[in-house]
Amino acid sequence: MAGVLLWVTLLHLLFLSGMVSSERVCSYQDVLDHLNLTRGNDVFTSTRPVLDHTHPTMVHLDVYLYAILAVIEKSQTFVPFIWIQLTWNNERIWWDPSQFCGISRVSVPKEMLWIPDLLIYEMIEKDDGPHSPYLYVSHDGIVLIEDEMKVVSTCKMDVHKFPFDTQRCNITFSSAIHIVTDIQLIPFSNSSRVTQASREVMQTQGEWEFLDMTVSRGKLILDREWDQISYTITMARRPLLHVINFLLPILFFLCLDLASFLISDQRGEKLGFKVTVLLAISVLLLILNDILPSMSNRTPLIATYCIVIFAFMLLSLLETILVTHLVERDSIHQETGIDRAPAYDCDNKPDHTPCHTCDSEEERRRGCCACICDVSGRKAPCEPLPVAEEVICSEQGESRLLLLILGDLRAVERTLALFASGRREGKLGYWTRVARRLNAAFFTIYLISVMLFISLMCKEWLN
After folding, report:
1. Cα–Cα distance, 7 to 1 (Å, whole number)
2. I need a surface site. Which of 56, 162, 282, 403 has the fewest CB within 10 A?
């Protein structure tokens, strides 16, 4: 009986010890204790994790594009939001999952293990976003890091076809100090897989449309040789906003300038209208200056588009000034001829008829004196007499008054005929005819030149 009790006690103790052992090996901390992986152990963090220093560490890299946050042409800056995955083999880490209740992977803080010193060549600002503080360690020594990063990078952009341009920006990964014999970078996914995965996880694109991502492997050779992987992101601009806000308004202003040729040249509204349209184009050019970069290998087509249209409208304004000057010159000539028209044609007076004209120009403008001819042939003196008072200086006063009225009627008739003919007869309409012909010829050349230029610009933009 005592023997039976002893066996039962022993079995109970063995059962309890088995439970304690099971609980001990089935925790992540037991795995770390087994590996001696603690924060104070510098063995895992101080040196590259290889048993033989002649073996390079193979680092597998994968990058996916989450979002295109900004593309700033003025400063040549590209800001993507990417997801990075790094894997490599730590040869100092290994355990048997069957001895630890099937635990094959544990997460540890990044400070406890060696991490490749990868950097991005194009990065110009430090990423201040939150990062994951942990990494995964597998039982066979494979270490995995998954992290997200906002990359503020420089990108050489070609804005020649702005806003119908396509940009290609690179994100190049390489080690800071480890050369190719220490670390070799290998892309985990090919270009098609990276492109497809990026399209599936893409959150936002904004003004830009993501086209594809190309993966290429290369080497940087200076005094030493570094291994590197470059991801080229290709994206196309959505031009609708710039077309509506910039290209179409300039085209509308050009159409208004063409329509201004229908305004009469005798009025001052045409010149003021053209100056207003020209100032509106100047405002749009100031807006364009804030968009395009200061330096570029080739002149942007949109700058050529604006400058040429500005030049067209400037030539149109100069032509309007010339035409207005010619019309005003003809008007001044006409007004001078009207003011100096005699009240009576003394060339048609009878022979030996003396004629007296008023010497005072002020009296002539006021109509108080007229040319009176002495039809009687007498030598009686003739003085300037006011018509309103009907003063006559001889016996034939009534005849002289009738001749005076006849001369006035002839002058009025000549003036009315000049206005009614529209300056088509006589020398007074010469400059007006020249201005009209010049205006018609310039409008024809102007319209043809504008159509050819717009067609050429559309061909260059859409090619």
Report:
1. 10
2. 282
